[in-house]
Specification:
By secondary structure, the chain is mainly beta. It has one helix and 36 strands. It has a five-stranded mixed beta sheet with strand order 17-18-19-20-24, with no helix packed on it.
Length: about 450
């Protein structure tokens, strides 16, 4: 979904209300941190040029277009959940701060990056906002967002930076992670004023890795993931030790996407579709005698969400009275939004897929010749049929090969018009039949 800002002045111009969005079946499931909790019944994510707010009970969607009209780079929710930030894309994009639940535009932060915001993060007290710019500038900017003013800024790195976060325990300390690096930052007072000072992590004898998931520990150490699935414990800018499973030598089978410290437990989620809970005290005190040795340990609990699931991000649900709960939402790179019960209990609930979408580009759309249905073909190999008038997803079928095009023939091919013809990247044309078409 893409919408360019329109003007209404001048002869032949297009009215701003010429087209209105009726419904969206889209979700950018591959975008980092594109799922956030607003309250007990609503989650927030982006698709194209729109912020979408999903009511989990009714499945109704609320749409909020951006001001610039050139796409969305990143979103973040304020700790109070009374505001959320939207980092736009385009030439010198803005950061828009909206009130919730009124959805009124509250503040605009300008000139934070050149083309797109890669990540946004509020400080634990909600007073500051950190933003990361994408290529070509990769700028890390600390904002006094209420005053729409820049406090500090610095080039974060020379390559892609994936995320930024404030320490929950140590004032003025931040961490960034990205392509082949992790960096530790301090907002330090110097003779010339407040400065943003960064120290690049040194991998030493450990293989250099992209850093997606990490968490700041209370004493200032940082626990990060790695591409091969183990965890790295950083003390200052050096790796104190590498944590590995005693059984298969890997904490996860693939990239560790998320790490959380929640109610005294460490939670990891990986691209392997697994969520694991680890003992915090053991990890916090982990150490090895030999430089190349690994610290072995096993999770206290683990869950495999589902076949083909690849977790990108997770966020914890909220309750009306902020009571302790074990329910989380997970963003799945395979196109899903999951509700997970990660409690260590024999009565915990099974993972629940609450929404399903195409994962990646939609390669083709074919409307039904006689009713309000359409079929879509995704690069992920899924064929989906929806009733766009009733705003319902009707059926989904996944194939091993990616899709490239789709056709819904008329009565000259099938009198019931229940036939779909799809083209796939493996060179196969598949003829599909809707079993319950009317």
């Amino acid at each position: 979904m893409y919408a360019r800002a329109q003007t209404t002045s001048g002869e032949g111009s297009t009215p701003s209300n010429f087209l209105t969005l009726f419904h969206s079946f889209g979700y950018e499931c591959l975008k980092r941190a594109n799922l956030h909790v607003l309250d007990e019944t609503h989650v927030l994510f982006s698709a194209g040029n729109y912020i979408q707010i999903l009511n989990l009970e009714t499945k109704a969607l609320t749409y909020l277009p951006t001001v610039g009209g050139r796409g969305i780079g990143s979103i973040a929710v304020h700790p109070s959940r009374k505001y959320f930030a939207v980092g736009e894309q385009g030439f010198e994009p803005h950061i828009l701060i909206f009130e919730y639940p009124s959805l009124k535009l509250y503040r605009i932060c300008r000139k934070g990056t050149e083309t797109s915001f890669a990540y946004l993060s509020f400080s634990p007290d909600g007073e500051k906002l950190a933003s990361l710019g994408s290529t070509p500038d990769y700028m890390l900017t600390i904002w006094d967002w209420r005053r729409e003013k820049i406090i500090l800024r610095s080039k974060a790195h020379g390559q892609d930076v994936f995320r930024v976060s404030f320490s929950t325990e140590i004032e003025g300390q931040l961490t960034t992670g990205g392509l082949g690096h992790i960096k530790f930052w301090k907002m330090a007072a110097t003779f010339t004023g407040l400065k943003l000072q960064g120290e690049l992590g040194k991998f030493g004898r450990t293989a250099i890795s992209d850093i997606e998931g990490y968490v700041e520990l209370p004493d200032g150490k940082v626990l990060s993931g790695s591409e091969w699935g183990n965890m790295l414990l950083w003390d200052g800018d050096l790796i104190k030790c590498e944590l590995a499973s005693t059984e298969n030598n890997n904490c996860h089978k693939g990239q560790v996407q998320e790490i959380f410290l929640d109610e005294g437990e460490l939670i990891t989620a990986g691209s392997d579709g697994s969520v694991k809970i680890w003992d915090f005290e053991t990890i916090d005190g982990a150490d090895v005698l030999e430089e190349d040795a690994m610290f072995p340990m096993e999770p206290m609990s683990e869950m495999h969400v589902g076949e083909g699931v690849s977790i990108v991000s997770m966020c914890k649900t909220v309750t009306e009275n902020n009571d302790t709960n074990s329910m989380w939402f997970a963003q799945d790179a395979a196109g899903g939004i999951w509700r997970l019960d990660i409690s260590v209990s024999l009565t915990k609930k099974a993972p629940e897929l609450i929404q399903s979408y195409h994962a990646g580009p939609v390669r083709g759309i074919a409307p039904c010749p006689y009713t309000h249905m359409s079929a879509s073909m995704g690069a992920d190999g899924t064929v989906r049929v929806v009733d766009y008038l009733r705003k319902n997803a009707l059926v989904c079928k996944k194939y091993k090969s990616g899709g490239s095009c789709i056709l819904w023939p008329g009565r000259n091919v099938d009198s019931k018009m229940a036939t779909l013809i799809g083209g796939f990247t493996d060179g196969v044309i598949r003829v599909m039949t809707l079993a319950h078409a009317e």
